[in-house]
Structure formats: C-alpha cells, structure tokens
From TrEMBL:
Protein name per UniProt: Molybdopterin molybdenumtransferase
Domain annotation MoaB/Mog: ranges: 177-314
Organism: Roseospira navarrensis
UniProt enzyme class: transferase
Role according to the record: Catalyzes the insertion of molybdate into adenylated molybdopterin with the concomitant release of AMP.
Length: 403
C-alpha cells in the first residue's frame, strides 16, 4: 500500500476517541480546543494611550505652529481620570492609561517641551487620533477568538486569558501505550549479553508521541512469545486510545505481533511501499487503535512520524494535516534500489550558492545516529529513480512533522 493510500485509510477508519474536559489555563498549552472560544470582554475595553506622553483635544492644536497649554491632570494605567478633560487643557498620560473623556490624541513625550511652570508646548501638524488605541481594536465581546480544533500555543493561552477565560474546553489527551518486542532487546542501564541490544525504539517512540501532545504509558518490553504478547495487548487495550509497538510485524519466524492483533481484532493494512518502514501495520484491538512499527530503529522513528502522527491527530479530534514540504536543491546524488517511496535523512546546509539539502552518508535503517544528525527527511517519490546534485527535492523538516 502506498503512503497516500495508508493516510486515506487512517482518515476513513480512525475516529475521534477522546472526551471533552475543562482545564485551567495553566494546563491548556498543547491541548486541542474542543469548542470555539468567544471573548468575554472587549479589548481594549477603552480608548487608551499607546505611548507615554500628553493627551489633548486635537481641536486645540494648530496645524502650522506650536501650541502651549497647561497640564491639569495625570493619568496612569489602571487609574482613569474621574472627570472629563476640558478643552484648552492637557493631561499627562502613560502607556495603557485610559483616554480622558474629550481627549482624542496623544503626543509622545519626546515631541513635547516641558516649560517647567505647569505648561507644555506641543508641536504643530499632529494627526488626530495619533498614538491612541481604540476600544475594541483587538476584539469585542462575543467575537470568536479561537476556533475549535486548534492546538493551543502560548500566544493562544495569552489570548484566552486576555479575553477573560480562566478555563477552556479541550479534548482529553490521547492515551497511548507503548511496547517494544524482541528477545534481543534489553533495558538501557542493564548488562548487555552477547547478541543483545539496548531498547532505543521504545524511548524514541514515547518521546515522539509525547511531542505530538499525547499522554504516554510505558508498557515495557515483551519477549517473542505469542501468549505473552496476546495477554499484554489484550490487557492494555481498554485503558488506551492507541497501542503502539515496535518489532514483530515483519515476516520472520519470531514476528508474532501482527498475527496476535489479527486474532484479537483486525488489521486495516500491513506493509507500506516506503523505505524505510515497509513492515508497518495499522489495526484495531476491540475499540482501541493499534499501530505496529518496524523493529529497525530508523524505520520505527520514521513511521512514527509519518503514520502514527495522523492516527494521533484523528484520535485527538484534529483533522489529518499534510506537513509542508520545501523545494530545496539537492547537495547529494542518490540512486534508488527499488520502486518504493523513499525518505532520506538529511539537513539544510548553507553554501556560497545558497542552501542545499545534504543527506547522511548511510541510509541503513539500523543506523540510529543518522536520525540524530538529521533535521528532516527528503521525500523521494516512488517513480523517481535518481537524484542528482542541484536537482530540486522535497524536504520535510522534523519541525513540520511535530508542529
């Protein structure tokens, strides 16, 4: 199955699985807004000064020569003047201060001459409304300020607070349980026997899924034992929206995960026409989504970014988004060994002739160092056989995949 067909399957088969909860703003960053958020207040609530200076009646100013007027009031932010400002008078005002009734213009202090006797001289030719923020210029009560389905960022949280919200409705986090499999896999920090390797996949997958906004449960490591795998997946299904495994989905004699999932539920697809990541499976264990990723570390991380990301999006109530690709000249040559769509680990490098994308010297899917060196993926279509230096390629930054 092509990656595009797999994404269409995800969009068609995976449904939002999370409920709605109200959380305080301090817990809202990274959460998905479950309903449109409307403003409880108007912002700014009043006309206010955008600069430190002097609030005046524009009609008192001359268009051609300076004007000298008395300063009869002082207005600081949070301390509005309790009376109108009469014509012929000036109020000293500070940034954020509410414009006195009658005043319509602010002249910043650098342009004003203080005569030292309670009067100031104001310049000629000042525009009406200068340095005044108009009430409601940002938003008004009842206006939609944030749309449902948005993943909240720090500026969104600030906006919600400014609009008077202490709590916001969000979808609960997608609960993801993560296993690794394989008799050769051992926990980091333990003694490594001959033939063993440390479990980088599980930790890498958990970090990626957490970066996608999910709540992750570390379900540990499973041996190549179909009965143990069956019990573990069956026990974990009801407590999670998604179960994620690495290893055990290929065609080896000890690859049991795929058969276990098929027996417990159903498989939507198995095997993708991509490199790395061919043995990738998606299915259901009862009502819980399942994604089985390859055992090679690069394959596991790449398919987590390409396949698990849209699954998490759908479960979280988000639309599946296609991450942006950038056309960049290749700073490498490459010949494909088959007709699969390839994703090469690479990064952008500046040269005297402009930026180019470089790729790691080894694209072996067991070489985890290549993922650490890379900042993104070069997407080489299935029908493209070669890449020559200088030819444009589609570069997919990791930042786009995790935005």
């Amino acid at each position: 199955m092509s990656l595009d067909e797999a994404l269409a399957e995800i969009d068609a088969r995976i449904r939002p699985a999370v409920t709605i909860e109200r959380v305080p703003l301090r817990q809202a960053s990274g959460r998905v807004l479950a309903a449109d958020l409307v403003a409880n207040v108007t912002h700014p609530a009043h006309d206010n000064a955008a600069m430190d200076g002097y609030a005046v009646h524009h009609a008192d100013l001359s268009p051609s020569e300076p004007t000298t007027l008395p300063v009869t009031a002082r207005v600081a932010a949070g301390h509005p003047l309790d009376r109108p400002l009469p014509p012929g008078e000036v109020a000293r005002i500070f940034t954020g201060g509410v414009m006195p009734e009658g005043a319509d213009t602010v002249i910043m202090q650098e342009d004003v001459t203080d005569l030292g006797d309670g009067r100031v001289t104001l310049p000629a030719g000042v525009t009406r409304g200068r340095h005044v923020r108009t009430a409601g210029g940002d938003f008004r009560t009842g206006a939609t300020i944030l749309a449902a389905g948005r993943r909240l960022r720090a500026p969104d949280v600030a906006l919600a607070a400014s609009a008077g919200h202490a709590y916001v409705p969000v979808f609960e986090r997608v609960r993801v349980g993560v296993f690794s499999t394989g008799d050769e896999v051992f926990e980091p920090g333990t003694d490594l026997p001959p033939g063993g390797l440390y479990d980088g996949n599980r930790y890498g997958m958990m970090a990626l899924v957490e970066a996608m906004g999910a709540e992750v449960t570390d379900l540990g490591h499973l041996p190549d034992d179909p009965d143990r795998i069956t019990r573990a997946l069956d026990d974990a299904a009801d407590a999670h929206h998604l179960l994620l495994t690495s290893g055990g989905v290929s065609v080896g004699g000890e690859d049991h995960v795929r058969d276990v999932v098929a027996a417990l539920g159903s498989l939507h697809f198995w095997k993708l026409a991509i490199k790395p990541g061919k043995p990738t499976a998606l299915g259901l264990i009862r009502e819980t989504a399942f994604a089985g990723l390859p055992g090679n570390p690069v394959s596991a991380l790449v398919t987590c970014l390409l396949v698990v990301r849209p699954v998490v999006q759908r479960l979280a109530g988000l639309p599946v988004t296609i991450p942006r690709r950038y056309a960049v000249p290749a700073g490498f040559s490459h010949t494909k060994s088959g007709n699969r769509r390839e994703f090469l680990r690479g990064w952008i490098e500046d040269t005297p002739d402009g930026p180019v994308v470089r790729v790691f010297h080894s694209q072996d899917s067991a070489m985890i160092r290549s993922m650490g060196a890379a900042a993104g993926l070069v997407d080489v279509p299935a029908e493209r056989a070669t890449v020559a230096p200088g030819e444009p390629v589609a570069y997919l930054p990791f930042s786009e995949l995790l935005s």
